[in-house]
Amino acid sequence: MAGFTNAAFREIVRGFGGAGLLATEMVNARGFVWLDENEAEHPDRLWGVAEESRPLAVQIWDNDPDTMAKVGRRLAGEYKVSVVDINFGCPVRQVTEKAHSGSYLLRDPMRMHAIISQLVVACAPTPVTAKIRLGCSPDNVNCNEIAKVVEEAGAAALTVHGRTAKDMFKGHADWDRISEIKSHLKNIPLIGNGDLDSAEKVVAAFQNYNVDGVMIARACLGRPWLFAQAAAALRGEPIPPEPTMLEQREVMLRHYQLVIGRFGEEKGTVLMRKYACCYAQGKHGARFFRSHVAKVSTSQQFHSVVDEFFPVVDNQDRATVSS
């Protein structure tokens, strides 16, 4: 998830446990090559990748097989990542219509095959995986055909988000469609993605649909403990309760320290605004908190807004806003 799943967030998730494979923000392969050729610092989206714990997947995107292979070779050889994942699912216009990448490539299976097959050779023995959507639009659902292409090209696994590119994130993910894809695969695992925002929904996905794994994305942004809850539920154990509001506040502040430790106070504080909004989402007083935290630009301002407006729990164990 571009702009969110950086090294700071991954460290927070890893601290709670439960996630089998963490993934980076998607990396623009062409931009990576330009930085490398001009001896500039590697993309911020690769921050922490070389040093952090494994397993770890790096997701890359572009539409040129040679460029993708060049970057994949570096990721597998120099960075020694666990998995190189190809993003064929991003529906954002800047990636699709402007760069003819992401979900735009679902209309060009042969190009997808070329990208995957060259990456598989370049990254060997590091596995290469692919993430797709159901199709470009509800009138052009071709996920079954694409699944065959992905496997024939040598990918080690396929992840499918249960919406089309045109849907963006509207409506509901179609898990029946995801499940149908399994019959079109011979050997590689199918991973389902979309609308998994609770441990119970994760368990239901495995019980009701023909998938080998699941991916949690947007739902974890303000709840990095969701993976631990889902893992416990899948083991048949009691689901750990949500952290208290005070504990959630401390998680957010820890996250903030990691961000400013990398980017400095000014840039780090601005970057943290969106994360802070995620932590408050769905809580009483969240809108009021967001309106204030969206304006902070210093560490003092951030802590002041959190102290005054971040939702807390009162004596009646209900969410409220401190004053």
UniProtKB/TrEMBL annotation:
Swiss-Prot/TrEMBL catalytic activity: a 5,6-dihydrouridine in tRNA + NADP(+) = a uridine in tRNA + NADPH + H(+); a 5,6-dihydrouridine in tRNA + NAD(+) = a uridine in tRNA + NADH + H(+)
Protein family (similarity comment): Belongs to the dus family.
Cell inner membrane is among the record's keywords: no
Enzyme superclass (EC): oxidoreductase
CDD domains linked to this entry: DUS_like_FMN
Organism: Rubripirellula obstinata
Residues covered by the DUS-like FMN-binding domain: 1-307
Protein's name according to its UniProt entry: tRNA-dihydrouridine synthase
Assigned keywords, A-Z: Flavoprotein, FMN, NADP, Nucleotide-binding, Oxidoreductase, RNA-binding, tRNA processing, tRNA-binding
Signal sequence, start to end: none
Record carries keyword GTP-binding: no
Gene giving rise to this polypeptide: dus_1
